[in-house]
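Subgroup meeting minutes
Present: P.N., E.W., G.H.
Scribe: E.W.

1. P.N. recapped why we're keeping a running log of single-chain structure predictions: easier to compare across weeks, and new members can see raw inputs and outputs side by side.
2. G.H. added today's entry (231 aa).
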Amino acid sequence: MQRRRWGGFALLSLLTLCGASQPLSAVEVTGKLRLVGTNGEELQLAEIAEAVVFFRPEAGAKVQAPRRPVSLVTKNKDFAPRVLTIPVGATVIFPNEDPILHNVFSVSPRNRFDLGLYSRGQGKTHTFDSPGLVRVYCNVHPDMAAYLLVLDTPHHVQPNPDGSFRLEGLPPGPGTLTIWQERSRPWSQRLVIPQRGALQPLKVNMTVDRPRIQPHLNKFGKPYGRGERYR
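Output recorded in log:
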């Protein structure tokens, strides 16, 4: 499987702990993620739990799309959840719980879609067939933003609010561990998962240098205008 780099900036402290004896199913990667400002000071941000940690084995991994659509709701002029992780091939439904019109769309490569204007109700669906990050916006409300991570690996987790994370049952062999958070540059590191034993916990610092609502254009590639807003 071709290795994909998501790019990134981080401080990593990693040592291999030898001599432990555990069953293969117990091999895991644990660690703690810290978000720091551009001056190096640690930031206490609630959205640290919105980061995603995932491991992509070089030998490849099988994923299975759920039979039923996964829900990403528009409510109170916002998306819930803000970050959603899905396997390749999953279908997402976008219910509208607001008494106003929304137009959910994305121009992300290989996963572009446009649901058009629709009112309150069950909403519309879209199937995501390519792995990658999908930035989801509303063509009516520029302050609405969500992120879909379409993954071709089942090995993923979101950190706890304190930044701690644990990936269990990893297959032995080489692969790439990636950590993504919307306000930072994604971080990735090649790891070799041992047949037995464990890896010492990771300590990863990611620099926050982006606003929570990043500037973007509408679905036509133009700035948002007042005439496009539906109250």
